[in-house]
Amino acid sequence: MHLLRISRVKLLFIIYFFFVAIPFNLLSENQKNQTKVVTKNIETLCLNSLEWYDRHPGYKGEYRRVLEYCKTYAKDVSPEGFLVNPILSDFGVMSGVNTRPRDQIHQGIDIIGSKNEPIIAVADGLVLEATIEDCWGSTLVIDHGESLDGKKLIVLYAHIGKFNVKENDYVKRGDIIARLPEKVQFMCMARVRHLHLQIGQKYCQKEEKDNWGCKYFIKDFYNSLNPHSYWADGPNKVSCFNKEKKYSKGTLTYPFQCKKLTAN
Ligand SMILES: [Zn+2]
After folding, report:
1. Total-model pTM
2. Which terminal CB of the chain, N or C, has fewer other CB atoms within 10 Å?
3. Residues within 5 Å of ion ligand 1, judged at the Cβ atom
């Protein structure tokens, strides 16, 4: 028994050494720096997205839990050489930004961020709707045309703050269309500042609203498209908007500005 315990400890050490310590040391200086920058970015944005708790000091226990959850599970999706706001609740998952399980699988992606941070159009498009919804807060619905595989791309930008555009405006990819809210105060924001980005194909015309099946802007709410299928650089390759670059219609770029990482 005693021998067995020693060998378990040794085994753990060997596992640590070969699978953690050696691989980390094999990374180049640049890769190590990038890992540090990414960790710092996630920590900062987790803190910034949880400002609701500063105004509600009675929720200290919940704050600590949600902050820890954010730091552990916020997913870095930065393309090489860039830094982007992380995704805290991705498409298709069952957990929300506030650690709680969802009733339905997630139909969009939740990207955390700081107050008043600019949100940029994921493609050229026409603003169908700019509304303040009771649970979602400010929401933009933009028709971004059709994807390369012929799907309509009706994009919901929800839980946002100030609008920079109005209904019937044409937007260009990369235009600042809104900002993240200063205060997180609507129920569906779940006390965490984040953009909920969701893609449906069937827009609910205004006269159809509030009828069964037309509550949240699109009829195919529970059949939404996975945004990761449509990035400009290819499926699952989050793509940064760069104003020098030409993009194909029907492809998307990230709804937040990317920061360029400088090699040092
Ligand atoms: Zn969401």
Report:
1. 0.88
2. N
3. 108, 110, 196
